[in-house]
Structures are given as C-alpha cells and as structure tokens.
UniProtKB/TrEMBL annotation:
Function according to Swiss-Prot or TrEMBL: Acts as a dual histone chaperone and heat shock co-chaperone. As a histone chaperone, forms a co-chaperone complex with MCM2 and histone H3-H4 heterodimers; and may thereby assist MCM2 in histone H3-H4 heterodimer recognition and facilitate the assembly of histones into nucleosomes. May also act as a histone co-chaperone together with TONSL. May recruit histone chaperones ASF1A, NASP and SPT2 to histone H3-H4 heterodimers. Also plays a role as co-chaperone of the HSP70 family of molecular chaperone proteins, such as HSPA1A, HSPA1B and HSPA8.
Domain of life (superkingdom): Eukaryota
Stated name of the protein: DnaJ homolog subfamily C member 9
Keyword entries, A-Z: Phosphoprotein
GO cellular component: cytoplasm; nucleus
GO molecular function list: heat shock protein binding
Limits of the J domain: 15-80
Regions crossing the membrane: none
Native species: Seriola lalandi dorsalis
Length: 214
C-alpha cells in the first residue's frame, strides 16, 4: 500500500495535515511541532500496548518527511498525491533514527515531562475541542486520538468538553450528550483491565522477590 492508504488505515484519514493535527496553512515550524506531538502519542516507548505503534510511528515519519520538503509538499498540496518512489518515503529507512536526528535530546523522561506539561494546558484544551468536532462528539474516537491520554483520563476529558459546551464554545452533539450506555460500560471495563494489569505488573516482582528470599 501507499502512504495515503497507510494513513487512512492507521489514523482514519488520508489527509497528511489531518494526520499531524495541523491546518494546510501551517508553517514549517508548525508542521514540525505537529509531527512531534503526534509521534509522541504513538512512539513505541510511549505506547508499548499498541500493536500498531511501530507502524504508526513509521508512517508519521513518512508524512513529516513529505511535508518537510518544499517541492514534495507543493505537489501534495496541489494534486493530493505523494511520490512513492522518492527517497523520502522509501521502505527500509530507520524512522526511529530519523526521529532522533530531529529531536536528539528527547528521552523517555522528556516524554513524561511533556505529558505533565501538556495535560491541563490551554494547548490540550484546544486539541480536545478540535477532536470533539472532528470526531462528531464520539468519546471512543476522542480518547483514542487525544495526545497523552489513556482510558482513565475520560472523566477529565469529559469535564473539559462539557465545560466548553456549557460555555457555548462547542455544540451539544448527541453522540456526546446522549452516549450509548454500552459504550460507556465498555470503556469502564477497559479502565478496570488496565488497572488490574498495572497492579499485576507491580505485585508480581514483589512476590518473586519474596519467594527468592525464602
């Protein structure tokens, strides 16, 4: 498959700008920032539980590589196509190394620090409001697409969106205000599963250590 097809399958859109969460009019710096933010969300170190994390991360690298080259970006903007034969999107490229070259000082701790700064910020609020509109109020899609957001963040995200609705900044979409109870219950089960797994991963080493001491 080509890059646009990969984007559609992995991110639900074949629009390269939409995949990075930036508008068509974005500057080079804004495109780079969009790539940074989105790649943090799917970086294999950040999302080890996502079986598609590596594929998403590699695809994001190709997206940014296309939009960061003026000539290729111009062709895409005008014709909506990508040169699949170019060195920019060729297979076999080490996209993790490419990311490290762009952001050489970024470590796993940097990612954690970014999350702490991003969560609760005005930037996050604007991103969530955009996702609400893009996802037509569907909480499953919003939570899956939101940056630095896990299943247990739903109450916080819902509060932000509800406040925006009450303040007139967002329309009251039925998918959000009258969500199916089964969908809510499914997310609660997902949160419980995540918590149980975290508990198991924490307790197992302690139990193993206790057994060894005996």
């Amino acid at each position: 498959m080509g890059l646009l097809e990969d984007c559609r399958d992995l991110f639900g859109s074949s629009d390269l700008y939409e995949v990075l969460g930036v508008p068509l009019s974005s500057s080079e710096a804004e495109v780079r920032r969009g790539y940074y933010k989105t790649s943090l969300q799917v970086h294999p170190d950040r999302a080890p539980q996502d079986p598609q994390a590596t594929s998403k991360f590699q695809t994001l690298g190709k997206v940014y590589a296309v939009l960061s080259v003026a000539e290729q970006r111009a062709v895409y903007d005008e014709h909506g196509i990508v040169d699949e034969e170019s060195d920019t999107v060729k297979e076999g490229r080490d996209w993790d190394e490419y990311w490290r070259l762009l952001f050489p000082k970024v470590t796993l701790q940097d990612i954690v620090n970014f999350e702490q700064t991003y969560n609760g910020s005005d930037e996050e609020q604007q991103d969530l409001l955009r996702l609400y509109r893009d996802c037509s109020g569907d909480m499953d899609q919003i939570l899956d697409s939101a940056l630095c957001c896990g299943p247990d963040d739903e109450p916080r995200v819902r509060h932000i969106l509800q406040a925006a609705i009450d303040g007139g900044d967002l329309p009251a979409l039925r998918a959000f205000t009258h969500e199916n109870r089964r969908k809510k219950a499914a997310r609660k089960r997902k949160v419980s599963s995540v918590i149980n797994n975290q508990y198991t991963n924490l307790i197992r080493p302690i139990r193993n250590l206790s057994v060894k001491r005996k």
